[in-house]
Design goal:
Length: 315
């Protein structure tokens, strides 16, 4: 079996870049252990504080952020950490060549029901500064803490999947994830229908019509409410994920954050042959204006994403 360290030698000759991925993988392995025991340790509740985005922090949002920070602090390859849970970017090492942007705990509203949550990360060159396009990413990945802990990572080639073994090592379990081009599953929070724009409404109506509508095939709907879990399903068996701009989120630019949610997921999905867009622009082409910027996110199986883009051209 190939482990993460062996795979990294096949993906890059840049040891410092490989070490940045290794640090995030080590943080993920530690977080996996913490999450398994969190209900016993009484850690699934609120922290009693808000993050910069005004969201109530869970105790584990804070704990996982500290774990990531501790793993990166000892790595001189890292210059700066950007985190959902930190108001400002944090300096790590003055010599560091890489910026890491992270959502240390994604889907934390799922903690009290023991559903899959995750850690997302994006690695960018320090030289480009804090605000860089997703297409400038050097590596990206996430850890999904499900029945098994899965690390999904891409440097420049394929998107590869690793599973945490009993000894805390990441073993490769899928060399090249491939998002099927076509799919019959869509993921969207349908309770937000009254806020949707015409394109989203059109696409979902068409899908719900199944074989009686223009799509000519039946669809299923899935929504975990944890981006990592929804995207992991799409990476494994196809589908489309939509958190579009709607009338309620429009003033904020969307719901999900560009630097540590949309960009890394778009980079991973595109590395697996999928497609990503805001509806009107490729996610990876967006020039950020703020480290906590929010954007509309539509990604997954290429044919489905193209159908949504077609709707945005029409309306
Ligand atoms: O509550 P909603 O509207 O279903 O939104 C769910 C989305 O919000 C998120 O939970 C936001 O992430 P955080 O938990 O990191 O804030 C995504 O994982 C998920 O896709
Ligand atoms: Mg998140
Ligand atoms: Mg989070």
């Amino acid at each position: 079996m190939t482990d993460l360290a062996q795979w990294l030698t096949t993906q890059t000759h840049d040891h410092a870049l490989a070490s940045a991925v290794t640090s995030m993988a080590a943080a993920g392995a530690e977080i996996a252990g913490i999450l398994q025991l969190a209900p016993i340790a009484g850690q699934t509740g609120l922290a009693g504080s808000d993050n910069v985005q005004g969201e109530a922090q869970k105790a584990l949002d804070v704990i996982t952020n500290d774990i990531v920070l501790n793993h990166l602090r000892t790595n001189t390859a890292i210059s700066i950490l950007i985190s959902e849970e930190l108001d400002e970017a944090v300096d790590v090492s003055s010599q560091g060549r890489f910026i890491v942007a992270t959502d240390p705990l994604d889907g934390s509203s799922n903690l009290d029901v023991n559903a899959t949550v995750g850690t997302i990360f994006s690695i960018l060159p320090s030289a480009g500064g804090l605000l860089q396009k997703g297409s400038d990413q050097l590596a990206a990945g996430y850890v999904a803490y499900g029945p098994a802990a899965s690390l999904v990572v891409r440097i420049s080639g394929a998107t590869s999947v690793f599973t945490l073994d009993a000894d805390g090592r990441w073993q490769q379990t899928l060399a090249e994830a491939k998002v099927p081009q076509a799919s019959g599953e869509f993921a969207i929070n349908t309770a937000r229908e009254r806020f949707w724009d015409a394109a989203t409404t059109g696409y979902v109506k068409e899908s719900v019509a199944g074989e009686t509508g223009p799509a000519g095939k039946r669809y299923n709907m899935r929504w975990v409410g944890s981006m990592v879990a929804d995207i992991h399903r799409i990476l494994m068996r196809g589908g489309i994920f939509l958190y579009p701009l709607d009338s309620e989120t429009a003033s904020k630019g969307g719901r999900l954050r560009l630097l540590y949610e949309a960009n890394p997921m778009a980079w991973l999905v595109e590395g697996a042959g999928g497609r990503s867009t805001t509806g009107r622009q490729g996610i990876l082409d967006i020039m950020p204006t703020d480290i906590h910027q929010r954007v509309p996110v539509i990604l997954g199986s290429a044919d489905e994403v193209k159908r949504v883009e077609e709707w945005y051209r029409r309306v």
